[in-house]
Amino acid sequence: MFYQEIEDWQDRETACHYSIPNTHNLESAVFWVTSNIKSQRPEEIDYWQTSCETLKTWTGDCEDFVILLWRTLENNVSFDGSNRIAILYNTKSNYYHSVVITYYSNEIVEVADPSIISPKKIFESNEFFRKFPYQLLIEFNINSIWEY
């Protein structure tokens, strides 16, 4: 599930060369994305935009926000962790959702959800998975896919 979309996105994102705004940490990256990208509802057939496509249109849905946030972190925030795009399944409402998960020493440290309708958009991992009924299905970045 989702492999074709992810692999298609990985190919297109690899070719993406666009100037990404400078940010210094996760908080400033989330603030920049949520302040500058206009939210739109997904199309009937959802298309995962590259970070370049989102910056050209200045609009995106849930996974487009997350992809741009992931790219912004990858390009600007220097730390010893790694960032992955995650696809989650809401077990109560039966829908899929995307977030960025930050790892350090193979442990989930923070979950960033730029499309959540809340002033708080960054959560410690335990808090996020305790507060929201999500099941982690798959994670990916430009080179790899992890399935759970």
What is the CATH class name?
Alpha Beta
Strand order across the biggest sheet? 6-5-4-3-7-8
| Arithmetic mean of pLDDT | 89
CATH structural fold name: C8orf32 fold
Helix amount? 25-40%
Runs with pLDDT <50, length 5+? none
Quaternary? single chain
Q: What is the terminal separation in angstroms?
A: 11 Å
Q: Calculate Rg over CA atoms.
A: 14 Å
CATH architecture descriptor text: Roll
Strand-residue fraction? Answer: 25-35%
Number of separate helices: 5
What letter string, H or E per element, gives the SSE order? HHEHEHEEEEHEE
The 3D shape can be described as globular
When the domains are counted, the total is: 1
**How many beta-strand elements?**
8
The biggest sheet amounts to: 6 strands, antiparallel
Give the helix/strand class: alpha+beta
